[in-house]
């Protein structure tokens, strides 16, 4: 008689019943288990949550809740996980994953390698993974996460089984946020709509009035851009807001990491760092700087997503469709803009937003990239 696996690994997975059913089956039936998986879905759809739930079901014996909780907490010895703190995944980190993938499981049924943000690999880093994905050991399973298949090289896609997650409805996300945070239904609905169904971002907007105010200020500032001077001023303001937001997210973590390292090295609080251990402290600070750079770029990318929603709403109104607007609070401004512009100009701005995102991925300076975008907003022409 087969013992049913407990629900624990899947408790935190929300709104992905079909994907859960497929992975639960794979975890208990070797005939349905691929050696490498790619979980795709839009930001906030729960890719990473599902990946670790799958890892827990693969590693732990049925009924072993302690082992499952270890995996979910990222502390089980048979789980190797990578979520880059930098802008890209380094070759060094990729090689370390490959090396770990050849170890036999020490306690669990399988060794599982989870790579979050697999879309952050450049081509030469992807090539490091190819052989490991093509010929992994019998008891090793790879789980990659990315927004879409197109974000990975064809050579990687050909070696994995893809599982596409569904995008939840605004109403579904709003109900979840209200249940999790206790905010009123109106705030939950607005946050889910503004976050465009990104669960993590919706939760942050719902619980942080300052984040809601920064978003509103940014969109209203962009709507007031009329000339090059406005473009430069607003671009600088957006970068400053994104920088402040990034610092707020990372400052507390940076300090706790530094204190923990100094404590481990035996350095008393408030005393000078001895030369013998200064290299380790400098290495930590370098890692934190890379994380801060990524956090800033992620913040600017979030602004671009919000701007896309603004001009998407404008385009909808230009085609006489006023349902499902994301920024309903700006209805009057959006209608005025839709009348003042022709649809081709709106499309030009939307194309420029996409180009700006690509430029930032190529390490363009955020302020200059945003200035160029906002000049297009002001003039309707690409600089």
Cα separation of the termini: 69 Å
Q: State the oligomer.
A: single chain
CATH structural fold name of the largest domain: Rossmann fold
Strand numbers in spatial order across the main sheet: 2-3-4-1-5
Q: What structural class do you assign from the helix and strand content?
A: alpha/beta
Specify Rg, calculated over alpha carbons: 23 Å
CATH class of the largest domain: Alpha Beta
Task: Summarize this entry quickly.
The protein has 383 residues and is an alpha/beta fold.
Task: Describe the 3D structure.
The chain has 383 residues and is of the alpha/beta class. The chain has 3 domains: 8-164, Rossmann fold; 170-207; 228-379, no CATH class. Helices cover 60% and strands 7% of the residues. It is built from 15 helices and 5 strands. The protein has helices spanning 17-28, 47-59, 65-72, 91-101, 123-134, 154-157, 170-181, 185-194, 199-207, 209-223, 228-264, 275-318, 331-340, 343-361, 366-379, and strands at 36-40, 79-82, 111-115, 140-146, 161-164. Strands 2-3-4-1-5 form a 5-stranded parallel beta sheet, with helices on both faces. α11 packs antiparallel against α12 (275-318). The radius of gyration is 23 Å and the shape is globular. 34% of the residues are buried.
């Amino acid at each position: 008689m087969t013992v049913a696996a407990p629900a624990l690994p899947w408790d935190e997975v929300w709104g992905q019943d079909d994907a859960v059913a497929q992975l639960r089956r794979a975890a208990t039936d070797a005939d349905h288990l691929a050696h490498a998986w790619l979980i795709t879905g839009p930001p906030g759809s729960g890719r990473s949550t599902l990946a670790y739930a799958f890892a827990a079901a693969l590693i732990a014996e049925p009924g072993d809740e302690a082992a499952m909780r270890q995996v979910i907490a990222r502390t089980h010895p048979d789980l190797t996980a990578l979520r880059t703190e930098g802008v890209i995944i380094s070759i060094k980190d990729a090689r370390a994953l490959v090396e770990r993938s050849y170890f036999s499981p020490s306690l669990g049924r399988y060794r599982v390698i989870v790579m979050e943000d697999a879309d952050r690999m450049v081509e030469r880093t992807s090539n490091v993974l190819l052989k490991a994905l093509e010929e992994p050991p019998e008891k090793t399973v790879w789980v990659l996460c990315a927004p879409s298949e197109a974000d990975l090289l064809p050579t990687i896609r050909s070696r994995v089984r893809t599982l596409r997650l569904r995008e939840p409805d605004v109403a579904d996300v709003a109900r979840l946020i209200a249940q999790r945070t206790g905010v009123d239904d109106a705030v939950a609905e607005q946050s889910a709509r503004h976050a465009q169904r990104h669960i993590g971002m919706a939760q942050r907007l719902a619980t942080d009035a300052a984040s809601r105010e920064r978003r509103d200020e940014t969109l209203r500032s962009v709507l007031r851009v009329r000339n090059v001077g406005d473009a430069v001023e607003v671009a600088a303001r957006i970068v400053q807001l994104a920088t402040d937001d990034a610092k707020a997210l990372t400052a507390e973590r940076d300090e706790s990491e530094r204190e923990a390292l100094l404590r481990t090295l035996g350095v008393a609080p408030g005393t000078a760092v001895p030369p013998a251990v200064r290299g380790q402290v400098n290495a930590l600070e370098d890692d934190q700087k890379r994380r801060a750079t990524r956090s800033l770029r992620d913040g600017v990318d979030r602004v671009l997503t919000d701007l896309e929603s603004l001009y998407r709403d404008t385009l909808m109104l230009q085609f006489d469709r006023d349902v499902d607007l994301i920024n309903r609070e700006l209805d009057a401004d959006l209608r005025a803009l839709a009348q003042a512009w022709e649809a081709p100009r709106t499309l030009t701005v939307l194309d420029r937003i996409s180009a700006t995102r690509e430029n930032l991925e190529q390490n363009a300076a955020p302020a200059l990239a945003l200035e160029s975008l906002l000049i297009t907003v002001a003039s309707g022409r690409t600089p």
